[in-house]
Amino acid sequence: QFNKVKKLTTKSHVLQWGQKSMGSEKASVFEGTGKTAPSSVVSEVERSDRDHVDSRDIGLVTRYNLYMQAGAAERPAHAAALVAEIQQREEADAKFAALA
Questions:
Q1: Residue 49's pLDDT band (cuts 50, 70, 90)
Q2: Distance (Å, rounded) from C-alpha 10 to C-alpha 30?
């Protein structure tokens, strides 16, 4: 499974850790009946580029997702954090544009 994921991953490094002696065993031994691979494993590996997040955007995307999933009571705090993240990005972009 590691080699399959490594082959299909093009936008980041794939790491392997933990007990590697289990590497020769199929994931279905642990997840299912052993007859077929779970469909969720295949669909996770075969996602398109639209599901990838640039590492520089993680803070922005995380704050956006927290805002969107927040209840009414938590939403103002998440909105403030999202706006602050956007303002910080705008300030950084302006500084780098001035250097160019």
A1: low
A2: 27
What gap in Å lies between CA 64 and CA 58, rounded to an integer?
Answer: 10
pTM above 0.85, yes or no: no
CA dihedral 73, 78, 81, 87 (to 10 degrees): -110
- Per-residue pLDDT, averaged over 65-77, amounts to 95
Contact in structure between 27 and 37 (CB atoms under 8 Å): yes
End-to-end CA distance of the chain: 44
At what angle are helices 58-69 and 75-99 packed, to 10 degrees? Answer: 160
Residue 66 · residue 78 · CB < 8 Å: yes
The tokens for 70 are 């927040």
8 Å CB contact between 65 and 53: no
d(CA 61, CA 82): 9
The DSSP letter of residue 32 is: S
